[in-house]
Amino acid sequence: MSYIIDISHHQGDIDWSEAVKDVDLAIIRTQYGTSTIDRKYVQNIEACIKYKVPFGVYIYVTFKNGTEALEQAKDFYNRAKNYNPLFYVVDIEESFGASVQKIVQGTQVFIDYLKSKAVKVGLYTGHHFYKPYLMDTVKNYDFLWIPRYSGSSSPGLKPNFACDLWQYTDKGIVAGIKGTVDLNQLNGSKSLSWFTDTDKKKEISLSQYEELQKENKQLKQELTEMKELLVGIKSNAMVSPAHKEDWEWAIEEGVIRGDGKCMNPTDTLTRQQMATMLKRFYDKFIK
């Protein structure tokens, strides 16, 4: 059986040579706010790359307003971007004393910043947190991830709210991981391949699009120049009507070797080439 897991340094050192047999997708924590960096995130990401385990990343946020949210969003993105994760998740479960309005504002700022980077973005929020903190009013994310535990390692009651990913237990057992781990399952219309990006072309940013346009324009210019060059070569390679019959005869009889298409009939003839042609003529017609 294969699993979708989410992990942090609380799982310790994972034996990925074993875990790869059980894991379809890993969601790796990079940090808790900006003050606590996950001690195993680099190790886990590099192992996923090595063993070809699809992975996304998440941050447990601690912001209390939009300014702090933007600071944490930038730090999160910059910390993970060079590893090219499949998606980025903002995990919001606590208010840290902030008002509902500030939490909603900060969450939206966080998500909008990530979306400006043309990446896939997920929102994780507690089952108890979703409605009271108006997470249902937050927009612009690509998928919603909600936990609801059964009390065992098996799925129980699904979340009361429509979501794409359901974290159903924190008591999962997976090869290569000592102790328990969070397990998740798909809960909507999105397939596993949607999360692993195997059925969807990657989106590109506006700057990337403009760069591609620039490169495309340059390629078109180079292609035009090549066509003009080929026209010139073709023109030079044409035999004048007065010599066409003689040229074709020389080709056919082998006095001039080749099919005539790769040779330029207007090229200068060297003495050694003339000697070769005369020898061929002698061998064929006189000897």
Automatic annotation (TrEMBL):
Species of origin reads Lysinibacillus capsici
- Keyword Signal among record annotations: yes
Its keywords, alphabetically, are: Coiled coil, Signal
Q: Which residues form the SLH domain?
A: 230-287
Judging by the UniProt lineage, the source's domain of life is Bacteria
Please name one Pfam family that this protein belongs to: Glyco_hydro_25
Hey, which family's this protein in? Belongs to the glycosyl hydrolase 25 family.
Instruction: List the InterPro entries hit by this protein, alphabetically.
Output: GH, Glyco_hydro_25, SLH_dom
Write out the coiled-coil annotation as residue ranges. 202-236
Q: What is this protein identified as?
A: GH25 family lysozyme
